[in-house]
Structures are given as C-alpha cells and as structure tokens.
C-alpha cells in the first residue's frame, strides 16, 4: 500500500502561509505603531511643550 497516495498535495501552502504571516505582522506592527504614536507620543509632547510655554511665559512676566 503506497503511503503517498493517501496524503493530499501541499503545493503552494508554504508560500500562502508565509505571505499571510508577513501581511499580518506588517499590518499589525503598523497599526500598533500608529496607536502608540498618536495615543502616547503626541500627547506627551504636547504636555511637555505646554509646560515649557507656561514656564517661559511666567519667566517673562517677572
């Protein structure tokens, strides 16, 4: 009884899986990068800039 006759063909499965994995990794990484940039980085920079603007204005009033 030949063992190869009972196995399905695997043509293209590795390539499809690799493309899927790369697409998910790049898409997810980009989405998380944007979430960090606009959710954490930009607000912290705005808080820092507001602090230094307030400090500068209080020093100039003295």
Automatic annotation (TrEMBL):
- Subcellular localization(s) per the UniProt record: Mitochondrion inner membrane
Annotated TM spans:
18-37
Protein origin, superkingdom: Eukaryota
Q: CDD domains from the entry?
A: CcO_VIIa_fungal (cd22888)
Q: Which Gene Ontology molecular function entries are recorded, alphabetically?
A: cytochrome-c oxidase activity
Q: What is its main location?
A: mitochondrion
Determine if Protein biosynthesis is one of this entry's keywords.
no
Q: Does the keyword Membrane apply?
A: yes
- The protein here is known as Cytochrome c oxidase polypeptide VIIA
Query: Which GO terms are recorded in the biological process aspect for this UniProt protein?
Result: mitochondrial electron transport, cytochrome c to oxygen
What is the scientific name of the source organism?
Tilletiaria anomala (strain ATCC 24038 / CBS 436.72 / UBC 951)
Q: Which UniProt keywords apply?
A: Membrane, Mitochondrion, Mitochondrion inner membrane, Transmembrane, Transmembrane helix
One term under GO cellular component: mitochondrial inner membrane
């Amino acid at each position: 009884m030949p063992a190869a006759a009972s196995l399905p063909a695997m043509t293209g499965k590795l390539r499809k899986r690799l493309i899927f994995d790369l697409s998910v990794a790049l898409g997810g990484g980009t989405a998380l990068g944007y979430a960090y940039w606009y959710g954490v980085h930009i607000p912290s920079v705005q808080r820092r800039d507001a602090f230094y603007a307030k400090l500068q204005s209080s020093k100039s009033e003295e």
